[in-house]
Amino acid sequence: MTSRRDAVRALAGIAALPFVRALGAQELVEIGRRAHALAELRESGASNGPPRALSAAEYDIVTQAAERIIPRTTTPGATDARVASFIDVMLADWYDASDRERFKAGLTELDARARKLTGRVFSRTTGRRQTEILEALDRDLQIRRRAREAGADDHWFAMLKHLSIWGYYTSRPGIVEELRVQLVPGRYDGNARY
Q1: What is the full DSSP assignment across 100-117?
Q2: With 90 as the cut, is the pLDDT of residue 175 above it?
Q3: How far apart are the first and last CA of the chain?
Q4: What are residue 143's phi and psi, to 5 degrees?
Q5: If 92 and its partner were Cys, which of 41, 53, 80, 144 is the partner (CB 3.0–4.6 Å)?
Q6: Average pLDDT value for residue range 166-191
Q7: Is 92 helix (H, G, I), strand (E, B) or coil?
């Protein structure tokens, strides 16, 4: 759907999300790291349960949509980075009820668009059709932004894109395999006394 270079540029746009406007880059990375740790804990069976903020069907929609936003190529995709689990944790722990409901209503809208176009729910639609639907939503969002329409950055699809990109680029696969950052355990203090 977008090139990796576009995705990296869009990562800077995360600051447009209402609840993260006041956060710095380091805080965004730390929140992402914590959300991934909680998602891993849930997936590993430690808390072994269904998604916390999303229904199983909504979780499936988010998984499919995030994979279309950041598909697997020569590097991992959103599914490899467990972006859907990241989004579920963020919605459960960081977003308020009204933002969560707006996001979930958007997923219902996404399913309705898919049904109208293909006769199937979004997660059962072909990858090509999923991409077409998401690209149409992206074009609509860009038109709203260019028109400086109030609430464009608060639109549910803007949330989905931002959370997908944030989740991907704060995940181990996104950091190590995509950005090629070497993770070094511990901390570096260049002015440490000895």
Answers
A1: HHHHHHHHHHHHHHHHHH
A2: no
A3: 51
A4: -65, -45
A5: 53
A6: 68
A7: helix
- For 47, 115, 187, 188, the CA distances from 191, given in Å and listed in that order, are 41, 60, 12, 9
Q: From the centroid of its chain, how far is CA 180?
A: 20
125, two tokens = 């639609």
Task: Give CA–CA dist 10/8, Å, rounded.
Answer: 5
The reply to whether 142 falls in a domain is yes
Q: How far is CA 90 from CA 13, 100, 138, 186, 188, in A?
A: 17, 10, 22, 26, 29
How much is the pLDDT for 5? Answer: 43
Q: Flag whether 114 is in a domain.
A: yes
Distance of CA 78 to the CA centre of its chain: 8
Please report whether residue 193 resides in a domain: no
The Cα–Cα gap between 122 and 193 comes to 58
Rounded to the nearest integer, the mean pLDDT of the chain is 80
Structural domain total, the chain: 1
In a domain, 191, yes or no: no
Structure-model confidence comparison of residues 86 and 179, the more confident one? 86
Tell whether the model's pLDDT for residue 178 goes beyond 90. Answer: no
The whole-number average pLDDT for the span 82-98 is 92
Of residues 19 and 148, more confidently modeled = 148
Beta carbons of 173 and 76 less than 8 angstroms apart: yes
pLDDT at position 150: 87
